[in-house]
Amino acid sequence: MVDSLEMLVAALRRPWKAEMRLTPILGFFALRWASVATTSTSGLYDLVKRRLPFHYEDFVFVLENTTVPSNSSVIQNDEYTISGVNDSITIQGNTLSALATGLRRYLTDVAHVDMYWFIGSRLEQVNSPLPMPNGTIVGKSLVPWRYYFNTVTFSYTTSFWSWSDWELQLDWMALHGVNLPLAWVGFEKILLDVFCELNFTVDEITSFFSGPAFQAWNRFGNIQGSWNDSLPVDWIESQFALQKHILARMLELGMTPILPAFTGFVPRALPQIYPNASVVNGSRWEDFPPAYTNTTFLEPSDPLFSCLQNRVISKQIEYYGNITRFYTLDQYNENDPFSGNLDYLRNVTRGTWQSLKSANSAAVWVMQGWLFYSNSDFWSNERVEAYLSGVETDSDMLILDLFSESQPQWQRTNSYYGKHWVWNELHDYGGNMGLYGQIDNITINPIDALKNSSSLVGFGLTPEGQEGNEIIYALLLDQAWQTSSIDTKQYFRGWTKNRYAGSNSIPEELYTTWELLRTSAYNNPDLKSNAVPKAIFELAPNITGLTNRTGHHPTTVNYNPAAVVGAWQNIYAAAERDDKLWSNPAYKHDFVDITRQVFSNAFLWQYQAFIQTWNSSTRTSINTTNSAKAILLTTQATALTTLLSSLDALLLTLPQFSLSTWISSARSLAPVNSSHIADFYEYNARNQITLWGPDGEINDYASKSWGGLVGEYYLPRWEALLGYLLENGPEQYDARVARKRV
Asked: In 3D, which of 707, 705, 683, 702 has the Cα closest to residue 692?
């Protein structure tokens, strides 16, 4: 059985060629996968080899006998024990995910090391010989599933990732107990092959797909096509090859991937090829030109829908094996159904569910519950209940309560009327970068939900962008293994020790830094501003509308800003006491990140002061060069531009805060000697974080405080507005002229 698992992983890793088909190999595993998935710990030993190569022989993983196969409908909570036996660290558990979580528990609680986003693994800092645990350490999960990813994370964060990026991410996820991740990469290859089999031309298919940075919304049916060029077939094939590596590693580390299903969104050519097909057009999304939205939707009641579903599921089983029973499927993400009639809604889900079960009898439909919040004016409780009732077996659906920490929907829907669901922390929209968290909500509310909902089966993370505030995400995943709310003061102190020192001592100022952040930026009680804030200098400059924004792109500062200044003073003082910190990658990252927030806050207040001065100016005071008002305005404007130029220089010191990293990652995925494709990928990368659309339809939604973007894009915009305001007082102000300059 172990050999069988290793053969499957090897098959998935094999480079894909157009003429190659894995059907004979994977068809065998499709029948046997359920019985072999949980029998090999080789993936965990490989993880130790990657991250702790000198201690590979110091760990023993023991997978306890279990009669529950990986794709069984029976779900169980995970358990592990950690003990020191004969100078080895022995970790026993009932699943691979339990063993991986136990490994991290040993590393953080006993060895005081961990691995991190952006910084990478710090596990090599462990003392040698390895410290032994004092007695036996026991862990048990509160829920069987720990979910990860939002569909749009695959565009805002991972769209241009290489295998090395994914390898670090998957190791991080495994160690943090994630066992149910979304797996979208390379899905266009499945659709390409299926639509070709249905007599579509390649051009008809690729013109339907969106560019690399916007595929998430094409998969949701919000947009179709790509402005500036078409998606190259080379991209489709290379992402498919990457997906095979990703799935192989997920399986090795005990994760059950959630694969995409057929949603119903199809190329515009379908009615010409199948004139009797029952199709409707989706609604216009975010005022995009009709050429890029109003996506064609094949009704689930049409027999062709079931045919396509069967082909999509079967094609994935052919290429990957029967590795999952979970399939993600969202049909109305920020698009309302064709009709609000209750029977219509019920029939849509019934037809979709039946098509899934026909393709894979064990299938579970995974759906983001975002639609019930984002389009709540349409989704009354009566309509929600009708829509969900089409899935007649509750356990055949898993709903992601996507924004549980701020806008939970499970209460108003009576726990989704009995369907299984996951409590999720969304936290970040568009990859915003402000320091932010809700430490009380993510340690108290999921525990309370578990007590009050019998159909809650998981905790998860659903950020739109994975762009910082890592401690807030780790906190929820660790809460999934604690029966009572985690003591965040103690948790932050342990995080600080592990992040900077391991088993060595660190300056007390570092502990003070994180305690100040814990009680300020990471403790937001005001849910009017309910997600990571955006720096106002990232927004199109204006004299109004930038400050006091709430919602999930807030510009408010819901804490005493002096606390973050105090955190900066302490983190700087720590290096004054121990200058070796300047060579510590975790310290350098955090120093830049906290400084970025201090500058962001300072820009906000300096802007408010400038606007107040400008609003009180007159034509005469503006146009008199040496007037006190003109001098003050010039001084305040200079302060604003100096903040941006200084911040830009700081951000450029680290690659994770630099625009060039994002751009070079995009260009690197183009074929060698194909500058045209590289330019297209770069255009996609730049467009997403600026205009977000052919004509700025979602302008600055995914803005970033990155070096190069601050200095080369935001600063010139602000110089344009400030220059205009220094020449024109409120009486002369023309918004159209000011906007045109920007």
From this structure: 702
- What does the H/E/C string look like for 477-543? HHHCCCCCCCCHHHHHHHHHHHHHCCCCCCCHHHHHHHHHHHCCCCECCCCCECCCCCCHHHCCCCC
Residue 712 scores a pLDDT above 50: yes
Query: Please, is 413 exposed, middle or buried when counting C-beta atoms within 10 Å of its C-beta (0-12, 13-18, 19+)?
Result: buried
How many CB atoms neighbour CB 434 within 10 A? 24
d(C-alpha 16, C-alpha 12), whole Å: 9
Residue with tokens 């849910």: 527
- pLDDT tens, residue by residue, 164-212: 999 999 999 999 999 999 999 999 999 999 999 999 999 999 999 999 9
- As a whole-number percent, the residues of the chain with pLDDT over 90 amount to 90
DSSP string, 385-399: HHHHHTS-SGGGEEE
Crossing angle of helices 42-51 and 96-109, in 10° steps, is 30
Residue 282: what pLDDT?
Answer: 86
Give dist(CA 19, CA 17) in Å, integer.
Answer: 6
Distance, CA of 354 to CA of 359 (rounded, Å): 9
- Mean predicted confidence (pLDDT) in 504-523: 96
Tokens standing for residue 166:
């994914």
Let me know: does 264 contact 220? Beta carbons within 8 Å.
no
Tokens encoding 333: 């993400």
Distance (Å, whole) CA 19 – CA 407: 48
The pLDDT score that the predictor gives to residue 673 is: 92
3-state class (DSSP) for residue 162:
coil
Task: State the DSSP code for 714.
Answer: I
Locate 535 and state its tokens: 């720096």
Rounded-to-integer distance, Cα 738 and Cα 257, Å: 50
Give the whole-angstrom CA distance, residue 431 versus residue 656: 13
Burial class of residue 344, CB neighbours in 10 A (0-12, 13-18, 19+):
middle
- Measured CA distances, 191 to 17, 96, 202, 227, 471 (Å): 17, 32, 11, 20, 37
pTM of this prediction? 0.94
Tokens at residue 149, please? 């990813």
Residue 69, CA distances (Å) to 9, 177, 648 in order? 18, 18, 52
Angle between helices 303-320 and 187-197 (to 10 degrees): 130
